[in-house]
Every structure is written in structure tokens, then in C-alpha cells.
Amino acid sequence: MSQASSSKQPARVDDGEIDRLLSRQANALQREVEVERILKAFKLNPYDIIDVDENATPEEIKKKYKQTSLFIHPDKCPHERAPEAFDLLKKAETELSDKDKREELDAVINQARKRVLEDLELPTTTPHNDYKLKGLNPTFKQRLRAKSKELLIEEELRRRKAIKMNLANEGLEARKKEDEVNARKRKAEDQQAWEAGRDERVGSWRNFAQSKEKKKKKQKIAILG
């Protein structure tokens, strides 16, 4: 038997296995790309984080959230910041599921929409699918997201300023109450000290009166003598 025929032949790689391997690698890459997208999304806009339109229905939002959360789940995604992205996604879904919070967010976005339409010299009632909004560069969606970001930042700054002022007012009120308590405490201590020194004052007055009386008697005796 020749050496060539006796040597071990390399195992033939199955084409299907190669396809599966490439598919897994591509899938892992897509997961990491999605994690990066979420991390770079504007944190004050849950629509950006979940990547849905502002007019999406609750069902559409929940469906997109479930798909994305499963796709980037830390157990499946090797990205080191997958847990952070997963938490951001969950927070965004929670905010959009809260009726009051979504209404507040939508109010700001509607204001942004009106301003964008005004900049385009279009009626503020122009529907989002109007032909006049097609072919814009930047697109209407990009303009709306940019203006929404601007207004949401302004709103967040106002919110933080209000919190800071409230804390400052609470601090002033707390100090005022503390000063009042300290003033009452000092008054009580002064009163207590006054009461405690009463006997001493009375004794001093008696001694003074007796001493004065003795002096008078001595003077009287001296005059008579």
C-alpha cells in the first residue's frame, strides 16, 4: 500500500454546516448591531429606543418590544453591554405602556410636529402621509425626531430645574422650622435658667436688704451717740 493511499484524508466539510456556521455568525453580529443601536438611541424618547413610529398602536409597540428583547437578551447576545441595552428597552416599553406618560410624551412630539410643519410652511393639520412630506431631505421623520429631541431636552431641563427649586425650597423650609425649634428651645432654656436662679436672686436681695438695714441702724446709733 502506497504512502499516499495510506495517509489520512482530510474530513470533508458539509456545505450545510458551513451555511449554519455563517448564519450563526451573522446572527450574532446582528444582535450586537441592535445592542449598539439601542445604546445610541435618544434616551428621553422611548419610541427611538424601541424603534417604532410615534403613531404605533399599543399592540405594535408590545410586539416590537418582545421581538427585540428576545433578540438582544443577554443570554443570547455576546455583547458586553447587552444587559444595559435590555434594561433600556424594558424601561422604554414600560413608559409607553403607561397611558399618562405616553400622553405627556406625545404632547411634546405633537408640538415638535407643528413646529416642523410651520418651518415647512405647511398647515399644522397636514397628515403624516401627505404627498408634500414625501421626498424631503432630511426626511420628515428625521426632522420630527430632531425637533422632538430638542423639545424633550428642554422639557427635561425644566423638570430638573423644578426639582432643584423644590429641593431648595424644602431646604429653606426645613431650615426655617429648625430655626423656630431652636428659638423655642433657647427660650425654654432661658426660662428654666431664670427659674433656677430665682432662689439665688431672692437670697441676694434679702442679704442686700439686711445689710442696708444694718447700715441704717449703725448710722442712727452714731447720731444718737
Automatic annotation (TrEMBL):
Basic and acidic residues compositional bias, start-end: 175-203
SUPFAM superfamilies associated with the record: Chaperone J-domain
Gene3D superfamilies named in the record: DnaJ domain (1.10.287.110)
Residue stretches making up the J domain: 45-109
Short name of one Pfam family: DnaJ
Stretches the record annotates as Disordered: 175-225
Coiled-coil intervals, chain numbering: none
Basic residues bias (residue ranges): 213-225
PANTHER family reported in the protein's UniProt record: J DOMAIN-CONTAINING PROTEIN SPF31
Protein name in the entry: Chaperone regulator
